[in-house]
Specification:
The complex is a heterodimer of chains A (451) and B (149).
Chain A: H1 6-11, H2 18-24, H3 27-40, H4 51-55, E1 64-65, E2 68-69, E3 71-72, H5 83-95, H6 106-126, E4 134-137, H7 140-150, E5 160-164, H8 173-182, E6 185-189, H9 199-205, E7 210-216, H10 228-237, E8 241-245, H11 257-260, E9 264-268, E10 279-283, H12 285-290, E11 301-304, E12 309-311, H13 325-341, H14 343-362, E13 367-369, E14 379-384, H15 389-398, E15 401-402, E16 404-406, H16 411-417, E17 422-426, H17 433-449
Parallel strand pairs in A: 3-15, 5-6, 5-7, 7-8, 8-9
Antiparallel strand pairs in A: 1-2, 4-10, 9-10, 11-12, 13-14, 14-17, 16-17
Helix pairs in contact in A: 3-5, 5-13, 6-13, 14-17, 15-17
Chain B: H1 2-7, H2 10-17, E1 30-36, E2 41-50, E3 53-62, H3 65-78, H4 83-98, H5 125-140, E4 146-147
Parallel strand pairs in B: 1-4
Antiparallel strand pairs in B: 1-2, 2-3
Classes of the chains: A alpha/beta (451), B alpha+beta (149).
């Protein structure tokens, strides 16, 4: 909690914090959240994360796998959840459950306030200008599909969509589908052999026909950080809008959508210590306002007749049906938790882990790092000579070490490096140097099995 | 630990490192491609079938130790077998690695039994059966690549 200690943490209510919630959320909700925060507030030292203490916040980290202590290094797939988030979601159902935005009864009003407070929490977290710019969706994938389906309707044959070679399938396929529907053309900016985007090629591929640029902030397969601010400026110079896939980045570095000046930003709750099934699409209000609705029904409607339906204001225009209320509120709690720990401290801790792991890996014969960009975060992707990544994964699992072995839903990246798959270790705030040592010992064991 | 040793027996590691029958088959009259989209394992299987008997079988592709060793051992086992015998072999092999049903008679499986350890690793069963599903496709001459999904 950025050196603030648990008492400040205790003031952070679920699904939001600061003045907004205190003023608007029912007293009962506040009491409940304060209790939760007191019970779960993480504590950190002033200069570095007190990881041992933070690990106490994550119940799952205390279980064993195959008789060994769990070493969870698959955080790029999904992160574990602190008790604060788990209890928040449970207590929502136990004490506050009601449908939102329509009930005249108290419970519905309180649930609505908690859900909307979470929206404010998200807005502050990514530094959006307005709460109307925060659309709750199921996750990053749905956010990208929403933009492709809605904003994409304005594309015409010959228009171009520019993505990069390091994208996750979720930031490739929606654009391929859009291009098939509209006759637009998909362009791909290549990466180099370190896994960095080739800026010269990216710039050359931008042109007057470019309508949409979609790129990741942090590559899930390589760990490459892209210079998003600069890329956005280049895209804007040719009149294109930019969608940033923040699925990986958002848990590892502070994000300011206004500073990035991106037009859309997408992320998921579950990689950010929050629940699955909830995520966020940020969009500049003027763009969202001009976009046609995507899905119809429920909250997105103002008035329906058989002749004509009018649509709700932002952000509800894009939130059809009863939303994942508990998920939204628990995502707010996850952001509060991250805020209490402090994202800059988390980033520094993870950078130190990555540097240590990279150094250890470099010292091991037969290990080849896939992704050696100068600017990286949280992800170590590699192959082991003579041992297929899947076999590495199985042997690591036998040692209690959870990693991802596969193509990471980024088959073009695998093709670029000429490998069918990689082993990927990915770090979170609760990982330790000792766990990196366990990982390296387990890799050595894999080499021995195949030795 | 013992499960892991059961999985990665020496014979399996040997077949992974030095797969038998690896490479294209000149004179093949059946061919199929197999793909496991979850892990990216791919293989192409070539058969030479004469009067319902598999005279020769070879494969190429890339995969993990389990899928490669399985393809290697399978192509060894196929030679000289009729299509009906191969179906029985697959049934026996599938029961061996996937479990379920009555405990299979493994008398006829021979060296394929070395893959029995896969049974303790449910997520790896598809690795062991990829070659066999591809075999079925080749015998049916299905035009589409087979996928484990």
């Amino acid at each position: 909690m950025n050196a603030a200690g648990p008492s400040q943490g205790a003031k952070a209510p679920l699904g939001g914090s600061a003045a907004h919630d205190v003023a608007s959320v029912g007293a009962r909700m506040n009491t409940m959240m304060n209790e939760l925060a007191r019970a779960s507030a993480p504590e950190t030292a002033e200069t570095a994360l007190a990881v041992a203490r933070l690990r106490q916040d994550f119940p799952i980290l205390h279980r064993t796998v195959n008789g060994k202590p769990l070493v969870y290094l698959d955080n790029a797939a999904t992160s574990q959840k602190p008790r604060y988030v788990i209890e928040c979601e449970a207590r929502y159902y136990a004490e506050l459950n009601a449908n939102i935005h329509r009930g005249v009864h108290s419970l519905s009003q309180q649930a609505t306030e908690a859900y909307e407070a979470a929206r404010d929490t998200v807005r502050r977290f990514i530094h959006a200008a307005r709460r109307e710019e925060i659309v709750f969706v199921r996750g990053t994938t749905e956010a990208i599909n929403l933009v492709a389906a809605s904003y994409g309707q304005r594309l015409r044959p010959g228009d171009e969509v520019l993505i990069t070679e390091m994208e996750h399938h979720s930031n490739i396929v929606p654009w391929q589908l859009l291009c098939e529907r509209t006759g637009a053309v998909l362009r791909v900016a290549p990466i180099d052999d370190a896994g960095e985007l080739r800026l010269d090629a990216f710039e050359r591929l931008l042109g007057p026909a470019t309508r949409i640029v979609a790129l990741t902030q942090l590559s899930n397969a390589l760990g490459t950080l892209n210079p998003v601010q600069r890329l956005v400026a280049l895209a804007h110079a040719v009149g294109a809008v930019v969608l940033v896939d923040g699925a990986q980045a958002v848990a590892h570095l502070p994000v300011d959508v206004q500073a990035l000046d991106c037009d859309f930003y997408a992320f998921s709750g579950h990689k950010l210590y929050g629940p699955t099934g909830i995520g966020v699409l940020y969009g500049k209000a003027a763009l969202l306002d001009a976009m046609p609705p995507w899905q119809g029904g429920g909250d997105m409607i103002r008035e329906v007749t058989f002749a004509r339906t009018t649509y709700n204001d932002l952000p509800y225009k894009f939130e059809a049906g009863t939303p994942h209320i508990a998920g939204g509120i628990a995502l707010g709690a996850a952001i509060d938790y991250v805020g209490m720990v402090g994202l800059p401290a988390i980033a520094a801790h993870e950078q130190a882990l990555l540097a240590y792991a990279t150094e250890r890996a470099a010292g091991m014969a037969g290990l080849r790092l896939i992704g050696t960009a100068r600017d990286k975060a949280s992800i170590l992707s590699f192959t082991v000579e003579g041992v297929h990544p899947h076999d590495v994964g199985t042997i690591l699992d036998d040692e209690g070490v959870a990693v991802r072995a596969g193509h990471h839903c980024a088959m073009p990246v695998m093709a670029h490096f000429g490998v069918p798959a990689t082993v990927r270790a990915s770090f979170a705030l609760y990982n330790t140097v000792e766990e990196v040592d366990v990982l390296m010992r387990a890799i050595r064991r894999a080499q021995e099995v195949f030795g | 630990m013992s499960d892991l040793r059961d999985l990665y027996q020496e014979l399996i590691v040997d077949h992974y490192r030095h797969p038998h029958n690896f490479g294209p088959l000149a004179g093949a009259n059946r061919r199929a491609e197999g793909f496991n989209p979850l892990c990216g394992d791919r293989l192409t299987l070539y058969l030479q079938v004469v009067d319902g008997v598999i005279e020769d079988a070879r494969f190429e592709g890339s995969g993990c130790a389990i899928s490669t060793a399985s393809a290697s051992l399978m192509t060894d086992a196929l030679k000289g077998k009729t299509e009906a015998e191969v179906e029985n072999l697959f049934a026996g092999f599938h029961a061996l690695v996937a479990g379920g049903g009555d405990s299979p008679s493994t008398a006829a499986l021979g060296k394929l039994e070395v893959l029995a350890g896969v049974r303790e690793f449910p997520v790896r069963v598809k690795c062991a059966t990829l070659a066999w599903h591809t075999l079925r496709a080749a015998l049916r001459e299905a035009g589409q690549p087979v996928s484990t999904e």
